[in-house]
Write a structure and sequence with these properties.
By secondary structure, the protein is mainly alpha-helical. It is built from 16 helices and no strands. The longest helix is centred in the middle third of the chain and has 21 residues.
Length: 286
């Protein structure tokens, strides 16, 4: 039975109380929109938060990027990777910091949740390469945080989310269907609320909001379709666990333009294991 409208409003009010992004990340988001911004200015902005700087540099110097020599400054990293990549890394590091509590409970394994999220991020990046999407690191970030609504529900409306997880287990159903049945909204709706509160770029908002219904994406349908397909591939490959044991139906129309065949999918599966292993440094921040 769905919650009463008044209860749904209360639940949304609780979600809207989640922390805002740190000032430095919000500032970077604004800076990268300005074509006159220099790598030095971005580096100086991140350097005002030593903890964030250290986390970003740890990712930059990981096997995931595989640079032959150590990158010692954010400005140097920005010059090599570009503004958007550094912006995405700062956002990733911040999301991990905000939701680093891995205690959870037996119904929702946060470690397995982040393993699934990482897998979707890696596969989104690989799909971006295959489909010639303009920004591979943006695809990685979109995939990595696509399910942020789940972690928000678990952290801010824990008892209600426990009831959802109980329904998932009892009926072996998709998590978003159980959320809709009990709460009157699902984690994709919550992710959209979060993305607006954090003032994320619109091109990132849609993959979070519509990864289960990519046909609704108008602003960035390619990236939304990429994350949708990456999520389904991760579920089929049993990479981590997003909270249920089901594989959603693929929206074939949303990925028709990708022109991927069976051998492409097989290649993605083969490459993804090694790439996920390289990206596991991200999980060390939890």
């Amino acid at each position: 039975m769905v919650m009463e409208k008044s209860k749904i409003k209360e639940l949304i009010a609780k979600i809207e109380k989640l922390p805002t992004l740190p000032v430095v990340v919000a500032r970077i988001n604004a800076m990268v929109q300005n074509p006159k911004t220099s790598a030095r200015e971005v580096g100086a902005a991140i350097a005002t938060d030593p903890s964030l700087s250290a986390r970003v540099l740890k990712m930059v110097n990981s096997a995931y990027f595989g640079f032959p020599s150590q990158i010692s400054s954010i400005s140097h990293a920005t010059t090599i990777l570009g503004f958007n990549a550094i912006q995405n890394l700062a956002l990733t590091a911040t999301v991990f910091q905000l939701f680093r509590d891995n205690s959870g409970d037996e119904l929702f394994d946060r470690r397995r949740f982040w393993e699934h999220s990482l897998g979707v991020g890696v596969l989104s990046r690989l799909l971006a390469e295959k489909t010639r999407y303009a920004d591979k690191e943006e695809a990685f970030t979109a995939g990595l945080i696509h399910d942020v609504g789940k972690i928000v529900l678990d952290q801010f409306v824990h008892e209600e989310f426990k009831a959802v997880m109980g329904l998932v287990r009892a009926n072996d159903m998709l998590l978003y269907e159980a959320e809709s049945r009990l709460l009157g909204l699902n984690h994709a709706n919550v992710a959209y609320i979060v993305s607006q509160k954090w003032n994320l770029p619109k091109k990132l908002q849609e993959p979070l909001a519509y990864h289960h219904a990519p046909g609704l994406s108008k602003y960035n349908p390619q990236l939304t379709g990429i994350v949708h397909l990456a999520d389904i591939l991760c579920r089929a490959l049993k990479i981590g666990n997003g909270g249920d044991n089901k594989v959603p139906v693929l929206d074939k129309a949303a990925v028709a333009d990708f022109k991927l065949n069976a051998s492409d999918i097989e290649q993605l599966k083969n490459v993804s294991e090694k790439e996920i292993e390289k990206a596991e440094v991200f999980l060390e921040m939890l």
